[in-house]
Amino acid sequence: MSVCVCVMTTCSSHSKIILFSCFSLFSLCQFLGVAFLAIGLWAWSEKVSRILMSLRENSFLLKFFSVFLGIIFFLELTAGVLAFVFKDWIKDQLNFFINNNIRAYRDDIDLQNLIDFTQEYWECCGAFGADDWNLNIYFNCTDSNPSREKCGVPFSCCTKDPAPCALNVYTISKIFIFLILIV
Any keyword Transmembrane helix (predicted)? Predict the structure, then answer.
C-alpha cells in the first residue's frame, strides 16, 4: 500500500488558469448576489412608494389608515393602563403559572427545555428563588423523597464561575508582558 503526496512547488500554467477561473466564478457569484439584492431593494421601495401614493390619492384609504393607526394606539394605551392597574393580579397569575410549570418540570421535555433556557437567559432560579423547586417531586427536600436530585435545583439555576475566565486573562496578560520584556 502506497501513499501518494503531491506538493506543487511552482505554479504551472494549468494551475494558474484554474485559479483564475475559480476567482472569476467567485467574483461573478458575488456580483450576481449584489445585483439580486439591489433589484429586490428597488422592487420593495417601488411597492412601498406606490402604496403611499395610493393612500395620498384616495381619501378613503387615507382615512381608513389613520383610523386603523388610532385604534392600534388606543388599544396599546388601554393595555398599558390595565397592566398598571392590575399589576398585582398579573404578578400573582404569573407566579401561579411559573409554579405550575415547576411542578411539571420533568414531565414534558419541551417545558423542561423552555424553563432551562429562561433561567439561564435571565439568570434566575424559580419564580422567587431556589426554594420554589421544593414544589417539584424530584427536587423536593423531604426525607421521604427517594430521588437523587433531592434538595437540589436544575443545572440552569447554577451560575457560571467567572474565575476560569479571570485566570485565562491573567495568564494571557502575563505571557504578553513576558513577550514585551523579551523584545
Answer: yes
Residue appearing with cell numbers 392600534: 72
User: Environment class of residue 115 by beta-carbon count within 10 Å: exposed (0-12), middle (13-18) or buried (19+)?
Assistant: buried
Prediction pTM value:
0.47
Triad 147, 153, 158: Cα angle to 5°: 145
Query: Do 132 and 140 form a contact (C-beta atoms < 8 A)?
Result: no
Q: Is 20 part of any domain?
A: no
Answer yes or no: do 52 and 106 share one domain: no
Whether residues 109 and 54 fall in one domain: no
Question: What is the extent of the structural domain holding 104?
Answer: 92-163
- pLDDT, tens digit, 9 for 90 and up, residues 71-86: 999 999 999 999 999 9
How many angstroms separate the Cα of 45 from the Cα of each of 36, 38, 51, 114?
14, 11, 10, 39
